[in-house]
């Protein structure tokens, strides 16, 4: 989905995101890689919010999984990008190279599922992504979902990665505002358990029945 350019971005190529309406934004790959560019306040807070065995869907290079494991919390990342999974594993984060919609270990038994960094918008279908999270959780488990604090409603469109040398394929993406969260949660069979603002970012806790 993100394609080869995403893998190259993770290993240092400067990339940006173009939307089909012409908007261009930076690909915040440095935040995902952790280190001095990471949003430490966000990362520490969301890791504090995780309870019990935690599955990070679209874990990228695995910084959140790595923090969890360092704290002794059982955690697993899942990502479609082979480079992301390799980087995750090299930082001590267990990670599976797999589509999050394919069969995953522990289905129906995870205590926490993470959807950070806008991953609720993967594939442009937030109900499908939240429904998948609900399926993975145990009864009473919670999904921690970051919403886009700059978005209002659900902005579904086509985006692609670009660099100075390459243009990647278009893929569908949704930017999902927190105002849409109650309806999306209800559609996915999850109950709203709380909303937490972390600096300029916002995370909802959604509980499985
Ligand atoms: C916005 S980035 C989030 C980065 C990540 N949360 C981090 O902290 O580095 C989205 C990630 O989801 C992955 N991804 C996209 N579609 C996926 C899918 N269907 N299954 C698993 N991972 C997916 C991408 O490869 C990418 O690493």
Walk me through the structure.
- The protein is an alpha/beta fold and 209 residues long.
- It has one domain: Vaccinia Virus protein VP39 (Rossmann fold, 3-Layer(aba) Sandwich).
- The protein has helices spanning 4-10, 29-33, 40-49, 63-70, 82-90, 126-136, 181-187; strands at 15-19, 24-26, 54-57, 75-79, 95-97, 110-115, 137-147, 154-163, 171-176, 190-198, 201-208.
- The strands form 2 sheets. It has a 7-stranded mixed beta sheet, sandwiched between helices.
- Bound molecules: S-adenosylmethionine (SAM).
- S-adenosylmethionine binds at residues 1-2, 6, 32, 58-61, 63-64, 78-81, 84, 99-101, 116-119, 122.
- The site of S-adenosylmethionine has 23 residues, from helix 4 and strand 4.
- Pfam families: Methyltransf_25.
- Residues 55-141 form the Methyltransferase domain.
Q: Note the total helix count.
A: 7
CATH domain class name: Alpha Beta
CATH architecture: 3-Layer(aba) Sandwich
Give the ligands present.
S-adenosylmethionine
How far apart lie the N and C ends? 31 Å
User: What is the CATH third-level topology name?
Assistant: Rossmann fold
Mean pLDDT: 96
For CATH, the homologous superfamily is named as Vaccinia Virus protein VP39
Spans where pLDDT lies below 50 across 5 or more residues? none
- Overall form: globular
Q: Count up the domains.
A: 1
Major beta sheet summary:
7 strands, mixed
Structural class: alpha/beta
